């Protein structure tokens, strides 16, 4: 009895190990994130990681239309999984937090994935980077460099008692620049509006475009 159990457990372990080995990871970047907007004040400006707490950042809008003034803060990465040779269309948006310098002058880097902070009183979720595991519900893709997130169904089409069918992955681009509280800081930052008009009146809808550094 016992040996059967162990044989089964071993088989399960072996097969899950082979599944794991079929999956690899891919990181691309660094790249910049640029805002596109009908509003000329916002259009062309870059996003950068701004301090919002201990080892935490949010995605603030920069004052200028060049990321070069603070290149490390404006440099992002994209971590995707590759399963049996096929790259996932969405992945984690990453910012590398540089910690205290090593004795040789280089810094220790903590790969920090973006997540979204939802609060009960609003449909505006704030962006946050921090050292943690990748949040599988907050993954981004790029369609012609335009950043989106995906969701499988659309509950605005649901009917009572009818299990929804035909759900397919949709690209959603509900990015807004809003004045938000990020930790205890008040920033004009990138936020995600879950659906409908933003509850926060300072929000302005924008597109976010991935830009390869030219040098
Ligand atoms: C890693 O991602 C880049 C950009 O999407 C892609 O060109 C490359 O083929 C990927 N590598 C693998 C092993 O999938
Ligand atoms: C453009 O954006 C700026 C900065 O957020 C804002 O002060 C201004 O009201 C906006 N203009 C329009 C026409 O929406
Ligand atoms: C992102 O990918 C890089 C390169 O594979 C890896 O070193 C890093 O740990 C990954 N980040 C996270 C949060 O998993
Ligand atoms: C990608 O963007 C183009 C142009 O905006 C759009 O026509 C197309 O439907 C998008 N692709 C998907 C899969 O949504």
From TrEMBL:
It holds the Pfam family DUF7907. Residues 30-210 form the DUF7907 domain. Keywords: Signal. The keyword Signal applies. InterPro entries: DUF7907. Residues 1-22 form the signal peptide. This is DUF7907 domain-containing protein. It comes from Lasiosphaeria hispida.
């Amino acid at each position: 009895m016992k040996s059967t159990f162990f044989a089964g457990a071993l088989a399960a372990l072996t097969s899950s190990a082979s599944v794991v080995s079929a999956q690899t990871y891919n990181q691309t970047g660094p790249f910049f994130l640029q805002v596109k907007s009908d509003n000329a004040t916002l259009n062309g400006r870059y996003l950068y990681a701004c301090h919002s707490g201990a080892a935490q950042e949010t995605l603030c809008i920069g004052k200028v239309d060049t990321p070069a003034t603070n290149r490390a803060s404006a440099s992002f990465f994209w971590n995707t999984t590759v399963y049996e040779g096929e790259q996932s269309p969405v992945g984690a948006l990453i910012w590398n937090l540089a910690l205290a310098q090593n004795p040789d002058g280089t810094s220790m880097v903590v790969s920090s994935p973006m997540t979204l902070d939802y609060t009960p009183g609003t449909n505006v979720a704030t962006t946050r980077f921090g050292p943690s595991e990748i949040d599988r519900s907050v993954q981004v893709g790029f369609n012609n460099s335009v950043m989106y997130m995906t969701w499988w169904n659309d509950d605005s089409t649901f009917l009572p008692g009818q299990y929804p069918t035909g759900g397919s992955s949709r690209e959603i681009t509900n990015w807004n620049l809003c004045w938000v509280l990020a930790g205890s800081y008040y920033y004009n930052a990138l936020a995600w509006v879950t659906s409908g008009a933003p509850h926060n009146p300072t929000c302005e809808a924008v597109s976010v475009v991935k830009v390869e550094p030219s040098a």
